[in-house]
Design brief:
The chain is an alpha/beta fold. It has helices spanning 19-24, 26-39, 43-49, 52-56, 58-75, 90-97, 103-123, 136-145, 167-179, 200-211, 234-243, 251-260, 274-282; strands spanning 2-7, 83-86, 127-132, 150-157, 160-165, 184-187, 222-223, 230-231, 263-268, 287-288. A 4-stranded parallel beta sheet has the order 2-1-9-10, with helices on both faces. Strands 4-5-3-6 form a 4-stranded antiparallel beta sheet. Helix 13 links the parallel strand 9 (263-268) and strand 10 (287-288). Helix 5 packs antiparallel against helix 7 (103-123).
Length: 289
């Protein structure tokens, strides 16, 4: 039997995040202060004292969630994981947890990713919507039938998929999803069409930073969003990360594959506990902590 560490993505942030860890642990303070120095602004001041709106800025949100997640995992007394995974942005936290990336390198990549995504959102406006209660294949079929750019972006858990694309295409897809029997098809308060072709400019911007970053052989497999498979080769990990911004997040498939490979205990590190709920829906028999 095996332990799996998992890490959340954008959307799990909240005002005051990580302050309890900062106040209680010297190692947390050192990591947070290092992050402020590397980024060139006081991220921790916004995390501890900022409003929800302050934290919604993509250039703040992504480094904040990453920092909280990595700090939380470092402070845990549980022995090393047997496998790791992260949801979208959370994949960077997972890469640190398994030793594939240094904390400092990953933080700089996350910051570059956030800025590239913000620029892409301004260049190619779009949105996302949650679809509940339809089979995966029906959601994909409807996306393909709608004119304009709209794709299945996040396969989260049974009966829960997030679609992403152009605003008009998302609106049309939501109507079609409801007509097909979806329990809900609800637009999300996000700044752009993440994990869709509209993120291609961000992928191009991020490519140079990823290519010049050192990736190391992880001490355990990482199940990456793009393939949902166990990866241990640094160059394959790098290639998958290059594709991540425009590809679907295959979270449900990742968790299913981790369980098939022996994972029976899942531990979520970071703000919130959204992944715990998804994992319970994917397989109620595993232990979630």
């Amino acid at each position: 039997m095996a332990k799996a560490f998992v890490f959340p993505g954008q959307g799990s942030q909240f005002p005051g995040m990580c302050k309890d860890l900062y106040d209680a642990h010297a190692e947390a303070r050192e990591m947070c202060q290092a992050a402020d120095r590397l980024l060139g602004f006081s991220l921790t001041d916004i995390m501890f004292n900022g409003t929800a709106d302050d934290l919604k800025q993509t250039k703040v949100t992504q480094p904040a969630v990453f920092l909280h997640s990595v700090v939380a995992q470092r402070l845990m007394t549980i022995e090393k994981p047997d496998m790791v995974a992260g949801h979208s942005l959370g994949e960077f936290s997972a890469l640190v947890a398994c030793g594939a990336l240094r904390f400092e390198d990953a933080l700089l990549l996350v910051s570059a990713r956030a800025q590239a995504m913000q620029a892409a959102c301004e260049q190619n406006p779009g949105t996302m919507a949650a679809v509940l209660g339809l089979p995966d294949e029906k959601v994909v079929e409807i996306c393909e039938s709608v004119s304009g750019v709209v794709v299945a972006a996040n396969f989260n858990c049974p009966g829960q998929i997030v679609i992403s694309g152009e605003v008009e295409a998302i609106d049309a897809a939501c109507v079609a999803m409801k007509e097909a029997g979806a329990r809900r098809a609800l637009k999300l308060p996000v700044g752009g069409a993440f994990h869709s072709p509209l993120m291609q400019p961000a992928a191009e911007d991020l490519k140079a930073a990823i290519l010049k970053t050192d990736f190391h052989k992880p001490f355990c497999p990482i199940y990456q969003n793009v393939t949902a498979k166990a990866e241990t080769e640094p160059e394959i990990i790098r290639e998958n990360l290059l594709k991540q911004l425009t590809a679907s997040v295959r979270w449900m498939q990742s968790v299913q594959n981790m369980i098939a490979d022996g994972a029976n205990e899942f531990y979520e590190f970071g703000p919130g506990d959204v992944l715990k709920g998804m994992i319970r829906k994917i397989n109620p028999d595993v232990q979630v902590g």
